[in-house]
Amino acid sequence: MLPANRSAKRCLPAPLSLAVASVLFAIAAPAFAQDKAEKEKDKTTELSRIEVTGSNIRRTDVETASPVQVISKQDVENMGARTLLQVLDNLPAARPGQVDSKSLFTGSDGASQANLRGLGAQGTLVLLNGRRLSYYGAPAGFQTQFVNIDAIPAAVIERMEVLTDGASAVYGTDAVAGVINVITKSSYQGLEVSGTWDTASRFDSFGEKQASVTGGFGDMAEDGYNVYASVNLYERDGIPDSEWYLKNPGQFYVNNPDYIKNLRLDTGSAPGVFNPGYYYAIDPVTGARRDEAAPGCNNVLQVSSGTRCIWQTWMNRQINGGADSKRVTAYVNGHYQLNDSTEAFAEVTYTDIDLHANGGTPRAYGTTTGNPQSWFSRNTGNTVNQFLTPWLGPNNEYNHASPELKAMMGGVVGLGYLLQDVGGGHFGQRNTDDSYRVVAGLRGAAGDWNWETAFATAGSHSVTYQTTNVNLKGFEKAFGPYTIDPGTGRVIISDHPAYKFGEISEANAALIREAFPTFDIESWTRLHTLDGKIEGPLFNMPAGEVRAAFGFNATRETFYTPGNPDAANGLITQQGGSWFDGKRNTYALFAEAVAPLTDKLEMDLALRLDKYPGFSANAAPKIGLKYQALPQLMLRGTYSEGFRAPSLAEAGSGGVYAQIGGYRDEVRCAETNAIAGLLRQSNRGVDQDLGNSLWNSDCSRNVARMTQPNQDLKPEKAKIATLGFVLEPTDWLSVSADYWFVYRRDEIVAPDYSKEEDIDSMTRFPITESDKSNLAALAAMCSDPASGVTCPGTLPGYSIGNVASVIGQYSNRGRTLIDGFDVDLRSRFDLGEWGRLNIGVAATIANRNMYNSDNGDGWYYGNLVGYYNNPKVRATFNTNWTYGKWDTGFYVNYVGGTKWAYDRIDAQDNNAETCTGSYLDLAPGHCGGAPAWWTANLSVNWRPIEKLSVGVTVKNLFNRLPFYDPNDWMNFAGYANNFGRIYSVTATYKF
């Protein structure tokens, strides 16, 4: 019987778990009444026992009470997957997780995550050969610590076992949604070389290359040892804006009519060509802004406020399209037979990851008239740091504004100027990560009992290098010393700054490198583990042998992020020197037993005690029942309790000092959009341009944010259950179906800064000169009949300034309840001289996904299934035909449609009637929601000789291009493919 597979999210209260057990025991009751004579069956030859993910007990049957899905190497090839992340993206039980190439500026830059059931990386345990790996150095959102699945050696993966059931009773913290156990080859002899190359015709810059060398020697049976090693090289090319900017879904350009025009590709000065910039001033009476192209400008643009000298946007920016990535993974595995009953084993894994994304266009000097940049920093406490780019004084040697413009502000003017001196390669981001794991241990047998003990040490060193923000001291060195204008109080740069406007030089470049330096954020994690277990028969029952396992686990965990010193002192704009320092020792004892209650009914019991500092020992129990109702039908069910201990990022020392992106202030959003809405109705192009630039500009802003750890956090708790069957009506067909649920409570969450009760303190900016200028432009339009706009008697305006800062703390708050069904169908056909044919269908059908962000009664957001990012159905279809030297696979991945709204509350504003999602217009025909999405892969593998294998895979065979998704920052759904059809060639040779 083949195992089933799963995916989704859900949970049930305790009464349901009792019902599960009651049903199974009711089924089993008649079996207890069997004649003892029937139980005394002839004993068959003992089969070799194996250990299955989710249990410490070796068994002869891979089917357990818990549903486990096995993904073989052949399955991976059929998917066209090249990385572990790509494998998980094709599993119905998994949900889209963080992708390394699109992770920039998330806090956990350069890493990928696993996400079972949609409960997040913090609810999914990732193992390598049954043991933990160290967390990635940088937590997601500076909160969630997780395993970077990119660091797992892909070349030596033999299979993956995905346990879609809670496993805290066996593995401890994090195993709430399930476990992903990556299993490598147990031994290898010989030498194998393999290479893969992927390319896409729609994107010339797209490229994925992978090469590996695996070699080993020694035969355990004959020589008493085996050692093998593998080196895997992976490289992915970045996608610049020059490839991407015209390939967004069509509706994106409808919603952003000025997007192409604002790139100034046909009208602005080209990169490297001097641009004198433009000046501006604010009318002290009306608040109107006046712009004026600097003398010598060859690229004058008329705007609502006058004229500007414009430049082209450089198109080598890679932040959106995807970053370059290079990975080197080395893996060594060794086994040595010490004597007839004892074996020594060891593993070494090392991964080096280097990811880089070009930041594109050089920065511009732009005197601030709107909100200043604001951020918290570690050493400045609750004081909000702010930075405004200074003005030019009346005697500045580079102030060549007209007398009329100078007169508006007593000679003081603002400046817009492109700082081209360092070129287009200086700005951007780079992430490096070096991770390792070393395991050494002994295993053996003592009589009928098997034992194993090992020590493992693992760690990760992650560094983020960013070149994007201002260093206040470096900026002042280039443009200072500053003075204060006595009339206006504005900050004024030096009349003779070190930076020389009007020329492009190496001296200027050196100053810009100090003003916009590369700063680093380093993080270290360490995990030292000593474990041991013993497993074997306890006693015999009438129906058979009772086996048990007992063990311990002791760990030392550390996490350290010192923070950048300049950022900690508030010198790096929008970066506050976030830092963490935590360490703890944890201990665990566990026991597990499998008892054949009858010839047909087997019971699994497990209990684990984990002791973390700061709260009482956590007891995680699990019970499972497996009933062979018929030779072709097995019934199974489990009930368990899971937990997640607070991470050191959440409960240690330190905190997040920087910004929060995407902050939505409903008041400012509505007021700015009211102004923009009138301007967009104007017949005058300059009013339309201003209205388009203002539209939604105050609906998603960067706000200074301080999130503090909470050392009083409790662990998250969960109740998990499954109930299902495996049916094999014939020898060529296997069908399994499992109902699953998860109820997670006391969730550890960061403050929801959109809710007043989560904010410990908040500050706002005053209404800015830029705000006043917008109001003046609106008034001017409404007073001009040529605009064609009928304005209301009272024009819209601003009642408050934008939010400047928010402060909050992690807390135990909220709960989630998810449930659904997993269905798996596998068929195998022997076609005789025509080979073998395998067909499989797997699906996850979500039933409920309910969430409450506080500890109140009920489910505030209702059932989220069918709403955005929570489809009812995820499914895969695959078929594999083996004929002679040919192996052909066809794989289809399906994601069901959803509404655009995130929940029933959001649906009041974003629905089919408004034809909006995230308050943005939708493409015609898509008002009802995100359509269902599917893609197909076709693979053909040929083995002309025994040692050589050549394969071709076409991913996204039908060249399907994604629909516009207003909720996703990429403008299309994360599970969709914007690269079109991808071609892949693989060759493997065994010496």
UniProtKB/TrEMBL annotation:
Top-level taxon in the UniProt lineage: Bacteria
Species lineage: Bacteria, Pseudomonadati, Pseudomonadota, Gammaproteobacteria, Lysobacterales
Record domain TonB-dependent receptor-like beta-barrel: where: 430-957
Organism in which the protein naturally occurs: Stenotrophomonas humi
Signal sequence segment: 1-33
Family statement drawn from the similarity comment of this UniProt entry: Belongs to the TonB-dependent receptor family.
Keyword Transport: yes
Entries under SUPFAM superfamilies matching the protein: Porins
Entry-linked PROSITE patterns: TONB_DEPENDENT_REC_3
Protein's UniProt name: TonB-dependent receptor
Topology of the protein relative to the lipid bilayer: Multi-pass membrane protein
Pfam family, any one: TonB_dep_Rec_b-barrel
Cellular component, GO annotation: cell outer membrane
Subcellular locations according to the entry: Cell outer membrane
Alphabetical UniProt keywords: Cell outer membrane, Membrane, Receptor, Signal, TonB box, Transmembrane, Transmembrane beta strand, Transport
Record domain TonB-dependent receptor plug: where: 63-179
